[in-house]
Design a protein that fits this description.
Elements lengths: L1 E6 L2 E4 L4 E9 L7 E6 L6 E6 L5 E3 L7 E6 L4 E6 L8 E8 L3 E3 L3 E6 L1
């Protein structure tokens, strides 16, 4: 069994910053890719950022240059540093890790006020 625990969401003003964390625990073994998706009300879930086991990163177009993904393999943790936040970044953010299957976190709310 694998559990993902997210933290770091909250309310921030436009232009501010937040850092999300997601830690995996349980029967993990070797972790492949890790990443974040988000879903705003009435919209489809979209990729925010992903990072491979080798450290290669990929970002959604709307967050390029503002968000940075990183991982600490020793801690089984993936981070998402979000800067220059905009109201349109408001969403529930979900982390995932790729093991034999893809596992998801429970989601953390990020709200950016104008």
């Amino acid at each position: 069994q694998v559990q993902l625990v997210e933290s770091g969401g909250g309310l921030v003003q436009a232009g501010g910053s937040l850092r999300l964390s997601c830690t995996a625990s349980g029967r993990i073994g070797s972790i492949g890719a890790m990443g974040w998706y988000r879903q705003a009300p009435g919209k489809q879930r979209e990729l925010v950022a992903a990072i491979t086991s080798g450290g290669r990163t990929n970002y959604g177009d709307s967050v390029k240059g503002r968000f940075t993904i990183s991982r600490d393999n020793a801690k089984n943790t993936v981070y998402l540093q979000m800067s220059s936040l905009k109201p349109e970044d408001t969403a529930v953010y979900y982390c995932y890790v790729d093991l034999t299957y893809r596992y998801w976190g429970q989601g953390t709310q990020v709200t950016v006020s104008s």
